[in-house]
Amino acid sequence: MICAECTIFKDSFESLAENSREGIHRTPFQNFTVLERSAFQGCELCQIIYQTWNQEGYSEKYKKDSPIEVEGYFRNLESRNQGIFISYQGSAIGGFTLADFTHNLVNEEQFNQYRTACRRIIDPHTPDAMVQIASLASAWIRTCRQTHQHCRSYSDTSEPKILPTRLVDVGTDVNPPRLFIPQRHLRSFEYIALSYAWGSKTFIKTTYSNLEAMTQHLPWAQLPKTIQDAILVTRSLGVRYLWVDALCILQSEGPEDAKHKEDWSYEASRFGKYYENALLTISATGASSSDQGLFLPSSLLKLEPKSVTFRPGTPLSYTVRSMIPNWLSETLSGPLSKRGWALQERLLSRRVLHFAENMILWECHDCRATELDPQGLQPRGLDGSGQLFLEFMTKCRDLYAKGLVSDDFMEEWCQFIDTYTGSEFTFVSDRLPALSGIAALIQKCTQQKYVAGLWESDIARGLTWQSYGDFRFDTAHLIDPQIMSSPTKGDSQLILPSWSWATSRGCVFHFDHETWTPLVEVEAWQVNSQGTSTSGQLCGARLTLRGVLAMLNLTDLGFLPYTSTHTTDNALRRDPEEVFISIESVYLDAKMDFQTRQMTHPCLLVGSTRLSDEDAGGALILKTTGNCMGGIDEYMRIGFISLPMEECLSIFTDEKTTISLV
């Protein structure tokens, strides 16, 4: 059955001539609520649009009060394929094309199998849901432990395990959960870790003041739903202990809380090991806040998947169907995947049980499975940043299990950082601590020194990061040259060096590795940190570089504010309407002002690469701090400029000089 509005659209679409380049444009729904109502009244085409709308994330991102436009093409200039495109009327946000059998790899038989499999998805609100979930998860764990070669190699290490300082004893139906502090002689016990987003709502946490009370019992009613659910799932799996950061690390009671600072500094460098050594990580993948819980309302459970065929039984037959959620879409589109801390938690975990929007999913080093495909037999279709991230995860796990270091690992690190800087953090100062476990793993396997987010063999190219996109952070308060020049012993203030990508206010990208040629010498570096060099808790860092300096005025060089809608007001171009990455560009590290553009700045040439079939040179735009140590002038980085290499050779002509960069 389809509704009257969809019938009109279907009849019009089917009447298009075979070679027609004209499309059918209709606005059948006043808003999303009208579409939703029609879908639940039984219109199959409305159901397909509604389910796809939810699966693509539009229902959460955009207002629901705008008219919805449906466009149908038999043949268009761009794709020369049939298609039905859905969008908000008059919106610049774009939209999506309904999935179809003709141009998708899923045939009708597979779709019918999927339709049947959807009926097996566990409804978490039924009385025996927890039993079913525990049965499914236990089967995944058992198979992993018994048959997965790569996963077993993680357990075969002879090194003593770093285990949590505190844990939640999940209790029983009779005994309430409580905080548990293991004795030091207990060097082996199983526990589960929780990966989740706190959200903005306040909830009970462990502090120095309530630590003793929390070891007696946890106030169940004050725990957020996600932690409550994780305790119940852990208990149902027959595991006694659960690690939850908010309960197992002393949280702040105010800016002068020394106990919290001391405890957090100690625990932050161990986070990675806690996830690495856990039997399993429970991931609240689909939730953006801890009050939502693990079990979310699933759009899959609301409506059965449908398909609608246009011109059935003819050579021009065209079928659209409900979008099939898969392992990749469920894990990478979830809110947790955008949280910076969660990337490390997921990457270092041996096994992850994802509670996503539509279903439960499994991830380990050898298998990715879903409730629709519990054996993990489906092809692993990956693309874009998802592909890069998962490939980097694999390389890191190979480092751990086999000690294998690929030739292009430093390039993969930079690509990972490019993705990582798009993650969400409550505090930008957490960017490096949230990588401490990954950094420690890489350092152990490569024997390279870790330098504030860079690696010693690739420091020069590590300086070529360029910040773009919406500036979500203000990092100026984390860059203080006075403190960096003379850090005091025990100074608890965390300071990020201006030259590290960790200070970027938005996302970054680096110069290409394959064609990279360094033109600066790294003579020395100094990193002052609380804890190990990989802890990320910096009290200041310094590079001593030797290269060619030149004084450049951005306005005199012809650089103008970038007018494209795809960038922010920190970018300058000689051609301000250029859309793609240009060989002639400036990316300032902060929002630009008129004075910055008009001033003449010292710039340090750091290297060259190949951009758009032309050699490009890259230089750091600097600002003097006014300090001089041992006859070496001290500078801070304030931006990055790239120019044709020929031009660089004509500008950077002085003798090499040594500078200090903080």
How would you describe what is shown here?
Residues 191-345 form the Heterokaryon incompatibility domain. This is Heterokaryon incompatibility domain-containing protein. It comes from Fusarium austroamericanum. InterPro entries: HET. The chain has 662 residues and is α+β, with helices and mostly antiparallel strands. It folds into 3 domains: 4-119 and 305-323, no CATH class; 129-299 and 328-380, no CATH class; 459-662, no CATH class. Helices cover 29% and strands 23% of the residues. It has 22 helices and 29 strands. Strands 19, 20, 21, 22, 23, 24, 25, 26, 27, 28 and 29 form an 11-stranded mixed sheet that branches. It has an 8-stranded mixed sheet with strand order 6-5-8-7-9-12-13-14, sandwiched between helices. Strand 26 and strand 27 (614-629) form a beta hairpin. Helix 2 packs across helix 3 (44-55) and helix 16 packs across helix 17. The radius of gyration is 28 Å and the shape is globular. The N and C termini lie far apart (68 Å). Mean pLDDT is 83; it is low at 76-80, 101-105, 379-386 and 480-492.
Keywords:
alpha+beta; 3 domains; eleven-stranded mixed β-sheet; eight-stranded mixed β-sheet; 22 helices; 29 strands; 29% helix; globular; Heterokaryon incompatibility domain-containing protein; HET
